[in-house]
Amino acid sequence: MPIARQNINSVDLSSHDTVFCDSLQALEWAFDHGLPESAIIKSSAPAVLWGKNKNIINVEGRWTADELEKFQRTIQKLTEDIFDASLDIIGIERELALTISKSVWQFQKVIYKAACLDDDDFTDPRLLIYVDGKTGPAGNIMNSPWGQILSPNSLLSTVNYTLKNDKWNVLTTQGISYWRRFKISGYETIIYRLAIKIMKRLPDCIFSKELLMPNENELNIEIASSLAIRGVKISKIQLKPLPVTEDIILDENIVEIYQKISPIIHERVKEWVPSSAIKITMLLFKSHLEKQFEQFKQLTNEWDKVIKKNYTIKQSVLANSPGGIKGHALSYICRKNNIPLVASQHGVTIEISKVHSMNHIGFDNSVSDIVFSYNRKIVNIEKNTYFDKSIHHVVGMPLRLIRMNSKKTTSGLALPIVYISTNLYYMGFGLSSETDYIRAKNEQKLVTKVLSKLPHKVCYKTYPEDNRRYADSDPVLSSVKSANNIELFSKKIDMRYLISEYRILVTTCATSTLGWAVMSNKPVVFIDQKRSQPLTDEAHASLSEGLFVFDDDDENFHINIRNFLSQSIETIEELWQKKEYARKEMIKDYFSKYKSGAGKKAARIMIKEYFV
Known about the structure:
Helix content: 40-55%
Structural class: alpha/beta
Largest sheet: 6 strands, parallel
């Protein structure tokens, strides 16, 4: 539903007393151009909310942590019910039912935002200030969908503001030497890259097996290189950009799908959003569903052009993260051509995270015929999910992660401690039961009450965010910069290339970042944030034996972790060594069952069982 946005000079800002805005720069421009200082500003941006201006309110403040946890807990059953209802429709196959269910999961972000509004927002004058500027690969996601949700309000005005002196960088390896990159990626990556280039020029008749690669991850590269050595042709496949369709011609299937699932969605919407928002939220969902349905059809058409059944060569597809709509369409074409779709784990998260149950619909095993995993814990979880359809094999971690253990400290004297921040903002609903503003405040407390009080020099490593969430710089960084003992590292470089620079690694949240830190065998201090991607109870017990775990809901959390990190580096390293046996068991259970050879194991399994 397109939104008409007016020129910044065509709106009388002085006539507005309630504004939605997520950019300090845009807000300052608005005040300079007539917006009353008394205007109420509704925002979710930490930088905008950071001051004590009583006229600036957190638009997400209506969400308590308990409410958000309830919102999250109920998503799993919602996606299951939608999947079942879709499959009940004649002619709807599994892959399309997955897309429908995943589209409902995605739409929770709109419901979350609609729930932030008041009935007055749909009747009284409102001004929306949108920002344009440089962004990452996902495009401009710096604005909430207020214009779409509030479109029934005839007194709504919107303006676009283009950011000045705008800069944005994405993930890079610039500044990392080829030698350091090679030491981590290894010869397997070289074999893989060469195999694709050379085998592309060779005739099919000399091969009996072919591996099709739509994308990559660490384990996929290792598997492909092992298969290449065994004479399997490695082929990169890629979709062309999808054609842009302005008008969607409704298929009779989508009409029936909407009729079938709309009562379920209506109950969900009615539970959370204000009464004035129910009708428009349902209309937005209908539009969203139609677009997802059309995209699925386009993707299947395009994959069908790329993947052709070869009756003289045995083929398999090896994909990374196929749990989205592109993977659903790929799975559909693979099934039609009787080609196995294989996926491999791309990081330790599911087996340690308490909140990932709401994303079962997006797990690899919902679409893949075969999944290669690091450990038995993730297999046990995935096999018990509602959408599981895979054969599971445990092969261990790829060598890229295993090699972290060989990275000795190259400096670590000037900055012995690194805090690896995982503070990524969601622009709304995500894996945290806290709003972005509360997350920012908690991160600031960790900086001011712990890191800045240590007798050691500390590096604060920002999360290498590719897709820009907010227009302004993270306000937490002002506290980092003002601390005498903290050095800010904000380059968009992955932490895997920097681990050798430090002696003590501090991080938080049950994310894949923890895997790189743990496999380094350097002392890891892990902060379990109970409201933001917390550990499962079982993982917490195991990790507490193998690592140094601190719970942020403990009464004396900041004091305890500050006292621990204030010890000498040598003392912390000695305490780390005492946990060695427990850590080996923890790694075997939650990280990698095997010490090496993941790619070779997976390659042998594929040749024996799936290239026949």
